Amino acid sequence: MFTNRFTKTFLFLFLFGGLATLSFAQQNAQALFDNANEMLQEGDYQQAISLYQNLEEQNTVSGALFLNMGISYQRIDSLGKAKYYFLKASQFEETEQQAHNALEFVESQFSRQSAVLPKLPWDIATDWLQDHFGAKNILLIGIITLNIGIFIFIAHWFLQAYPNVLRIGGISLIGAALIIIATSFYTQYISERYSKAVMVTEKVSVLEEPTEEAPIVSRAYEGYTFTVDHRQSNSQQGWAYVRMSNGLYGWIPNREILIL
């Protein structure tokens, strides 16, 4: 009896202590965020950025945090970083519209604009699926469809009415499910291999090889966006293999970009 009472007491204190710690951490994060907002309103942008970065490092992130970080960088004329954080803020529903408006303004402030090739249809489709569903949800839809298809196909062996319709319908659903499942794996592969990045320094050369002495493919400027190929990039420490928005490929030092 003593052991059971001790165990219950220990569990109660453990859970209570964990909840109290979590509550304190949330209150502390909110206080830090409020303090950073005050610094932003007072025009102390560097201090505000420092406080926002503390929250980001603690993974206490939100659309409002990224939006305010973008505003802070915009005020100190660091437009590349402002664009980066506005893009992150646009991924949150509560700040999506404000972030898009801010992005339009920031884009108009860059002295140089990159040529942009239109995306291929399957790239557009993959981006849309990832943004609206995600690979896991697509896989779940595929599995559910597969089970329904198998059930309907099996049913044609036992039901006398419309056996051919059930058989063809079951096979069709199974085929569609396999396509959906394959799409989910492809979407996951693309999302893990490629990421969007923003250049945050003034100017850099995109090179044919990951070395400073390599021939120059193109010049890139603050605010340019890239598609980073992580599989290629992982082969060279400190370098990223990128596709520019104009379709050219090359290597760029990691320090020049921020990856979304």
Furnish the topology, listing elements before pairings.
Blueprint (H helix, E strand, L loop, with lengths): L1 H41 L2 H13 L5 H13 L3 H11 L6 H14 L11 H12 L2 H21 L7 H31 E6 L3 E5 L8 E6 L3 E5 H4 L5 E6 L4 E5 L3 E3 L1
Antiparallel strand pairs: 1-4, 1-7, 2-3, 4-5, 5-6
Helix pairs in contact: 1-2, 2-3, 3-4, 3-5, 4-5, 6-8, 7-8
What does this structure look like?
The chain has helices spanning 2-42, 45-57, 63-75, 79-89, 96-109, 121-132, 135-155, 163-193, 230-233; strands at 194-199, 203-207, 216-221, 225-229, 239-244, 249-253, 257-259. It starts with a helix and ends with a strand. It is built from 9 helices and 7 strands, in the order ααααααααββββαβββ. Mean pLDDT is 87; it is low at 8-25. The strands form 2 sheets. It has a 5-stranded antiparallel beta sheet. Helix 3 (63-75) runs parallel beside helix 5. It is globular. The protein has 3 domains: 2-109, Serine Threonine Protein Phosphatase 5, Tetratricopeptide repeat (Alpha Horseshoe); 121-193; 194-259, Roll (SH3 type barrels). With 260 residues, it is of the alpha+beta class.
List keywords for this structure.
single chain, 260 residues, alpha+beta, Serine Threonine Protein Phosphatase 5, Tetratricopeptide repeat, SH3 type barrels, two-stranded antiparallel ribbon, 7 strands
